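Supplementary Note 3. Input sequence used for the single-chain structure prediction.
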Amino acid sequence: MKRLIRILVATVAVLGFALAQAGSCRSVGSSVYCDDGTSYRSIGNTIYGSDGSSYRSIGNTTYGSDGRSWRSIGDTTYGSDGTSYRSIGNSIYGSDGTSCRQIGNTMYCN
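The predicted structure, written as discrete structure tokens, is reproduced below.
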């Protein structure tokens, strides 16, 4: 369960706006599949997107292939673009208005 939460939280924190637009995403093994057809696969410390994007974690910082980065401090992840995402229980709240809630192995975003 911790691995599932880690994958979903990492994916939402890194891809906040995109996942909010996707509606909901479901974790199956080390992959996350979203309603809009995108998928993300976690291999080691890297997340690979079906759109060709990749996100690599080094320590508490995640670096995107698009040049953006995110740093996790406690329960909050800060983006280089000024956004932040805070995890509270099974929910994630973004400074950009993103709100996601995990129910089972599915993350619902609005």
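The mean pLDDT is 78. Residues 2-22 form the longest helix (21 residues).
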